[in-house]
Amino acid sequence: MQWFLSLPIEPWLGHLVIGLYLVALIAFGAVVLVKIRVTPVWALLLLVPLGSIAAAWLLAYTRWPRFDGPPEPPRRD
Hints:
This protein is mostly helical. The chain has one domain (about 10-65). The protein has helices at about 10-35, 50-60, 65-70. The mean pLDDT is about 80.
């Protein structure tokens, strides 16, 4: 049985809530990606069902310049 069809809300309200959720998801993902200096287009991965796993993997193995500092120049020994 589809329980959500019996909810007393208008269909346009449900679409609005889902739309706002998707916009917030993409926006917050883009903010995080900008902080690690990656193009915010990668935030579209969050719309793909397993894309969030790939996005988390990207975050885990990317160097965060804001916390690690600038890269060190190569040594000349």
